[in-house]
Amino acid sequence: MRGYYDNKIAEVRSGSTFEEFQVYDSAQQRVVDLLKRVADHLLGRAPDVLNNEFPFDNGKVLFLWSKPGFGKTHLLEAFINRVKAGNAKLLQRMVLSRGLFEFDYQTCDSPYGVPVVVIDDMFHDKQSVSDLHPVGELASFMKFVTDTYERRALAIVTSNFPLLKGGIVERIAQVDKGGRIVSRMKELLACSGEIKLTGKDFRAELAKRRKNDEFTL
Ligand SMILES: Nc1ncnc2c1ncn2[C@@H]1O[C@H](COP(=O)(O)OP(=O)(O)O)[C@@H](O)[C@H]1O
Ligand SMILES: [Mg+2]
Q: What is the per-residue pLDDT across 131-180, written as a single tens digit (0 to 9) for each?
C-alpha cells in the first residue's frame, strides 16, 4: 500500500519534549502523564505494532483541544519524540497529518494506512465550528471516525475547537436531523476521550522573554 502522501513526521522538532514542557497546573500534568503513558504503551507493544496490520483490539480517539498557543503541537511532538527515542522503527507505523484534514478523507475512505494516526490542528483554517460544512469538513470527520474504528487505530487529534459540548459533534447534530449519525458517533466515541488542555498562551510568554534578545538564527 502507498504511504500517506502528506506525512509530516520528519518535520517534528527534536526540541519538543516532555522535559521542556512547563507545567502550570495538575490538569496539565495529567495530560502530560497520559501522553507519556500512551507512548510507553506503544513501546511495550512494539512487536505487535510493527508486525500486525491491526494491532489494537479497539479504535480510540484521544482528542486534545485548547486555544492557540497552549502547547498542543509541542505535546504531540513530545509524544512522537518519546516513541522515536524508544524505538525509531515505530515511526513507520505512524503518520502525522497537519495539512487540511478535510482533504485527507475527500478522495479516500482510509487515507493513513497505519495503526497510529496523529492529526495536529484539525480544522485550523476555520474560525468557528459553525464554519464546518456538512458535505466538506463534517463529512470528512464522520469518515475519519468510521475509519478509525473499523481499522481499530489509535488517533491522537488536536484542535482549537472542542469535540462534544459546543464542538464538532454538536455541529454534526445540527445537520443530522434524524439523529442517526450522531447516535452512531456517540457509540463510536464511547471509549475515547476529549481533553481540554489548560495553562496559558505560551507564545505570549515566549514573546515577553525574547523581547530583549539579540537576533540570531
Ligand atoms: N507549557 C509549555 N512549556 C514550554 N513551552 C511551551 C509550552 N506551551 C507551549 N510552548 C511553546 O510555545 C510555542 C507555542 O506552542 P504550540 O505547541 O505551538 O501551541 P498550540 O499548538 O497549542 O497552538 C511552541 O514554541 C511551544 O514549544
Ligand atoms: Mg498547534
A: 999 889 999 998 999 899 899 999 999 999 999 889 998 899 888 877 87
Which of helix, strand or coil describes residue 24?
coil
Task: For residue 175, report the distance from its CA to the centre of ligand 1, in Å.
Answer: 34
What are the domain boundaries of the chain? 9-209
In angstroms, the first-to-last Cα distance of the chain is: 40
- pLDDT digit string, tens, across residues 32-90: 999 999 999 999 999 999 999 999 998 899 999 999 999 999 999 999 999 999 999 99
Q: Which residues' Cβ are closer than 6 Å to ligand 1? A: 16, 20-22, 66, 68-74, 199, 202-203, 206
CATH classification of 9-209 is 3.40.50.300, yes or no? yes
Cα(116) to ligand 2 centroid in Å equals: 19
Sheet holding 154-159, edge to edge: 94-97, 116-122, 154-159, 60-65, 193-196
Cell 478522495 maps to which residue?
Answer: 107
